[in-house]
């Protein structure tokens, strides 16, 4: 079977090859053959057999352009011809086909646009042929996979969000109570949604506003409150008159609390609300509704709506790997049984109805909404099988084909009675009250949409009013609440969500102390990002019920550097194992792209573990089965890397550069250096040395420092401007809050941390952009002094320089090193000292040294043309000859390690980790 990426590659080629096709008679056959066989890999014999499929009638014989019997009917038209006519023609063919040949899907195409119809549920997918790659998943049925289509962006989403925001602002301007505004707007949105999705009559809410509220808006709040009371009152208990009594009884707690009345609004608010009723709210999915609503309620939470609608794709990554794939596989296994299917289906159905889910940082409920939707859709498939198996049992028929199952409906039974999955199985914790109310509403809305899907699937109208019991959303601080008070550990099955993305560097002391208290007083935990608290609390509740499984989205920093060591070693010690993981990819977080991972973990170890690896953070993933997953989300056992005081490969050590702690008084700009040289000449020249930090190294920015360690008092007194600078250094140190710095006031001519080298050194930036394939390092000529923003290696040689300037070392750095924001952070103790150099032959050493020198030579050529290291190592514009030289060096070094080159950074990192473990065992 082709991989997802192979299919996409095929699709790109297909689009290119057929971009000029227009004629049905001359080009349809080749187009269809390349579409089915070339893109999706269907066997030639199967494709060829489907052309010009004959359809017999009493008087004529007609031919279908192509038929995969039981699967797909394709009808082609020349470019520019009507697809509506083609649709009628195709549906006519379907009616005349034999039972076993009736397809599940009909596809129409005019070489410019594709229309695909799902005959089971009436869903329609339409898109230009040039966008085939973006919609490739709608053809999953061709490769025996379910179609999973995420929520498309609809123009009404953004328009509705803007108008909701405007309405909220206007309500606040008119002094409607802030605590009640969220409740009022939540109810309004429900009503807007209700009249577009068959809960209310069409335009029922719109007409109520138009005909029964004053044009000046003065009675709008009171009239809305009257409606809300009715929606919370059974019809037989109502005393109101029409049109209020015509509204359905909703209940479910949504309209239970009375809103503040007596507040006088105005015509502008009324007009805004009426305008909102004119939008088609059926186009807004509850999945995007919650975040849209948050943006309207809280300007600080506002984000790019266009970007946010892709987030369902990322939520599905959690849902699929945590539970849906396993449940689907279990269902497929039952379908393959020869006997006892009905009993197994019923047992499986009961299992679905008993599952309980917790999102302990649920926000507006997106994870719970998607999880509920997917469980309901699976339940519909199970119900369909149960109904048919019951029919077979009653008719003593022991065989059934899938086509018969799908077409079968029992008109004597009410499917509503079979639906058991409830939103009350879904629990959430949210600190913001308005977000919690949105989550409850979103789940109710999704329940209604699922009822509509069931109505379409089973051919009966399923509207479950009044609303069933709602989701269990608790308002509170998830790290302070006891989760077992919300859902008992013995009943809980899955924990999922994306807790707050808050980095350790910006956390408050209270938040750090909270993490420590959660971790039973482990003080190291305060170094972790805030999300670690949710991992730890999940681990502790899983210890009470080892059958609970968890999957959380988090910033990738908790699987890198020191954080990976602290968090995961703590969790491993408590019996946790990682069962699947999505390595780093990009996640939209309120308009900002954050680099995240998904980690699925539990007490019980899965017999099948998977890593999802991304070639690009915004690209597709490759799924890889592995035997173990470690703290760095690599396919090896846990590593337990510890900081090393000395290099384990016995190479020369590296150290931090010099830190003057001088208030800037010893550091010179080019103008200040020239001024001092002009005034004092050779008397000061030997005491001015280049001072190079990461910025100076990367961007070739000139900077100098007064290095006065060996200057004599007599020399100093002859240079008043230098004396003045020294006095300022002393004063700065005397006034420091640090006792250690105050002691250095007695030595104002010295650097507080003096690592000035007496020879050439290798300079290594402490922080470098994660986008670079290599951390740009440079051999610095004496008398340069690296600052404390560089690491330095004295008397470095070409071999060491060559090894460190490879993808092998970069892969190690990006795995075990820390992060500063998204940039990689170098470390001597955790990165360099733990890195295992290859054992090389003399010839291999000479080759590596020669290739390293080539890189230096190429750099020098570009330096002469005013290029900087930052220019040369920008991945977009890196010169070809420099890239080629690095590739040759990479190949030589990887052969020295492994005998052959590696295919990916994951392979490089896994190899180095195994090498590290082997090295430690032999020591």
TrEMBL record:
Domain MmeI-like DNA-methyltransferase: 343-613
Coiled coil regions in record: none
EC number of the protein: 2.1.1.72
Residue span, MmeI-like helicase spacer domain: 182-255
Keywords: Methyltransferase, Transferase
Residue stretches making up the MmeI-like C-terminal domain: 841-921
Upper lineage: Bacteria, Bacillati, Bacillota, Bacilli, Lactobacillales
Protein name stated in the entry: site-specific DNA-methyltransferase (adenine-specific)
Originating organism: Alkalibacterium iburiense
